[in-house]
Amino acid sequence: MSETNSAAEVAAPHRYTAAMAADIEARWQDFWDAEGTYEAPNPSGDLAGDAELAAKPKKFIMDMFPYPSGAGLHVGHPLGYIATDVFARYQRMTGHNVLHTLGFDAFGLPAEQHAVATGTHPRVSTEAAMDNMKQQLRRLGLGHDKRRSIATIDPDYYKWTQWIFLQIFNSWYDKEADRARPIAELVAQFESGERTTPDARPWSELSAAERADVLGDYRLAYASDAPVNWAPGLGTVLANEEVTADGRSERGNFPVFKAKLRQWNMRITAYSDRLLNDLDGVDWPEAIKLQQRNWIGRSEGARVDFPVDGHAITVFTTRQDTLFGATYMVLAPEHELVEKIVPAAWPEGTHDVWTGGHATPVDAVSAYRAQAASKSDVERQAEAKDKTGVFTGAYAVNPVSGEQVPVFIADYVLMGYGTGAIMAVPAHDTRDFAFARAFELPMRCVVEPSDGRGTDPAEWDDAFASYDAKIVNSSGKDISLDGLGVVDAKAKITEWLAARGIGEGTVNYRLRDWLFSRQRYWGEPFPIVYDEDGIAHSLPESMLPLELPEVEDYSPRTFDPDDADSRPETPLSRNEDWVNVTLDLGDGPKKYRRETNTMPNWAGSCWYELRYLDPHNSEKLVDPEIEQYWMGPREGMPHGGVDLYVGGAEHAVLHLLYARFWSKVLFDLGHVSSSEPFHKLYNQGMIQAFVYRDSRGIAVPAAEVEERDGGFWYQGEKVSRVLGKMGKSLKNAVTPDEISAEYGADTLRLYEMAMGPLDVSRPWDTRAVVGQYRLLQRLWRNIVDEATGEATVVGTEPDEDTLRALHKAIDGAGQDMAGMRFNTAIAKVTELNNHLTKAGGPLSRSVAERLVLLVAPLAPHIAEELWRKLGHTDSVVYQDFPVADPAYVVDETVTCVVQVKGKVKARLEISPSIGDEELEKLALADPAVVAALGGAGIRKVIVRAPKLVNIVPA
What is the CA radius of gyration of the chain? Predict the structure, then answer.
């Protein structure tokens, strides 16, 4: 400390410094905890009897809850948390009952990988990380109701995650009622004969295994053998959404292959239309809605059956009007019909290019299937120049023309989309065109080109695709589409197909059922056991939670990342005492085997908003009255949900789509009143930081880089600088602890909110933080005597200029806080504070108090301290936000510019409410304007009250 600074602090012992900020902040954080300041009351019993609570509007504000990383927080993480805290504080001050808390999404692969590497139980490292993050978040002064905080790894929490899974498992989707219903009601329909079994046998004649198979085709949670994304390097399967665009795992960047495994799935596809339609009733960014709509991918078309060797290949097409142009078919290599239709020998006349050089169709198909299995879906769909495939040896019949068309398998057709089979119309589809050229297949033009290329595809360079053209070459025995437009042709052919029972109009979706199994240890165990016949049984609620057992090895068995033929081995399967159990599920003790997969890390985050409402309820998921109060539908919120949900746009599909699905199932079954989990969604931007790299491209510590001579230097070497993410690996992370220690948490809060609009990414600059620190120091000096520590306010009323500055700040900052424009709210508070500083002299008490209340949502610690120094004994948290006097918000006068021939000749100080006619008279009477006109007549006067008058002489 310099002698000058020492002398200054001796002379001003009550100056606002980092040390004082630390003391103030710690004291008020302790006070808030001890007093339960942020504890939001729930309704109890009859809400109408609780007049005070019933009179208050409610506001449920949420952040996307964090994963407790061992690295802790950097300053980019709390951006959204500070924003929701400011907003929540403003809502409390405007009379709302505010629920605001934060939990931890604590199951995850990083903790499991740490356990594998160190032998430390994932719970130990996860809880340590949570404790560290709780301390970091507390230091920021976040006003969370800590009674409501949860962690997904707590058995008391995941008991209800398991319970919800069982509700989904024991439900089916009734298409006629358009909602989920208990599976018991479906069983009753089968038993009564109201609904027939697939083979028409009476329900009573089906074995237990057969009944289980029938119900499995209906259940909303079901196990099936299906193509999955298998990552040998991780030892687990992944959902489609967890595979990157280049066909690798989102975590670890391992290759991902297609494999057929028995896995748990959620039948989210049953809700496709509701997930689409209900987007219209939520207040979300349009970009997020668009991503969800595209992911669901609804398309209208027709189902068409192509006969082949006693079977039928069913295709879905959106261009049924081009059926006459289908000259071959393609199946996905995994399609179940492939093995049934492949003959022992090549048919006579098979083209050599179709066989792939193999002696038999069986050899060709087997080899190609192995080749396709080594590619991800993304790789298979890539627009590669060379199309690959092989003839199955089978021919199908085009149902409209009666022509025999060869059936191929090719990797560009996926089982995950449509029916896993396509009718190829190469003249009018680019991929089919390329495949047909490669395999010398015929093409037929059935949509008349409008670009003058003619109707012979042999002369074309690419396919012709159009929805605005006439159909040609499309006539059969009893139907002709020739001359029709696309829309009319679609309608006619669809009706024709349906009349013959070989097709129908239908809707298809891009959305696939949600793969819900993971071959990991650190996740929620499935509350499912299998009997000796392999039939799945749900555990009764009395046996929940089913807790994770201890295991010696936490890792699933991993394999060579490129070993596509490997198969999962889970950690839970190694604990035989846990896996093999004797249970009484209501029909006497029997031996069972537990499910050894665990749920994905998304499970716990699908419903956590509900547990915030009623976190200690051991009897119910959530009390219905409490859920109705906080999340029920109301005016402007037709589906109910959380009032404000803030988080990153990267969760547009995964988390948000899954949570919406779970919410709708719970709604259908009568457990909740809200059919949408989150009414308003707000995506905050990202705090970025400069990354400095040496000549090898390796990141160097940003804090040790020097800027000189127009460049950047690290240990004598010039380094490059780019703007990127902030993180430990990039050596540019700044922790909130560092900034709080140097300036105080209130300064950090102000800086993060002042950096720019909340929904825009912005670069971090530690050097700029001091600006907000100085704002707080000026605020402190305006109210507190730095020598005595006492408030210096006086009882006199402020002058008119100060009143105008005050009320304009109140009006503007209040509107900005309500609209989450915190950067401009801070600008208005700064402007007011600067006005008061320049005015000098002690502040009027009425001004000082309202200034503190303005600051309270943004910098709560210093606001509490100043409120106390102003003589108040209650917390500032629940004080009323100041209200602006409209008389002082409107400027007393404004400046009107008067132009003659487009040049400014006069400026008039006038009332903002002046009318056009009066303003015109004043302008024409002004001496400078009279002189500029020089006696000339006036052709036109343009008045834009109160800011402009433009005079055009004759």
Answer: 35
CATH topology of domain 299-508: Isoleucyl-tRNA Synthetase; domain 2 (3.90.740)
pLDDT digits (tens, 9 = 90+) for 11-64: 689 999 999 999 999 999 999 999 999 999 999 865 555 778 888 999 999 999
Q: Say which CATH topology domain 892-953 has.
A: Ubiquitin-like (UB roll) (3.10.20)
Classify domain 53-154+603-683 by CATH number. 3.40.50.620
Instruction: Indicate the pTM of the whole model.
Output: 0.85
Strand arrangement of the beta sheet that strand 404-409 belongs to = 390-397, 404-409, 328-331, 421-424
- Across residues 321-345, what is the average pLDDT? 96
DSSP H stretches of helix in 510-580: 576-579
**What distance in Å separates the CA atoms of residue 493 and residue 446, rounded to the nearest whole number?**
14
CATH 3.10.20.590, the chain: domain bounds: 892-953
Kindly state the greatest CA–CA separation across the chain: 112
DSSP state, residue 547: P
Percent of the chain with pLDDT over 70: 97
pLDDT in tens, 185-205: 999 999 999 999 999 999 999
Q: What is the pLDDT of residues 69-100, one digit of tens each?
A: 888 899 999 999 999 999 999 999 999 999 99
Q: In this structure, are residues 328 and 424 in contact, taking their beta carbons and an 8 Å threshold?
A: yes
What stretch(es) of the chain map to CATH 3.40.50.620? Answer: 53-154+603-683
**Domain 1-35+736-890: CATH superfamily, name plus number:** Isoleucyl-tRNA Synthetase; Domain 1 (1.10.730.10)
Query: 538 pairs with which residues across the strands?
Result: 528
How far from each other are the two terminal CA atoms of the chain, in whole angstroms?
74
The amino acid occupying position 260 is K
Q: Of 764, 601, 768, which is closest to residue 685 (Cα–Cα)?
A: 764
Q: Buried b vs exposed e over 909-918: b needs ≥16 C-beta within 10 Å?
A: ebbeebeeee
- Closest among 335, 315, 329 to 408, alpha carbons compared: 329
Q: Which two tokens stand for residue 815?
A: 């509107």
Q: In this structure, what token pair is assigned to residue 93?
A: 């001050």
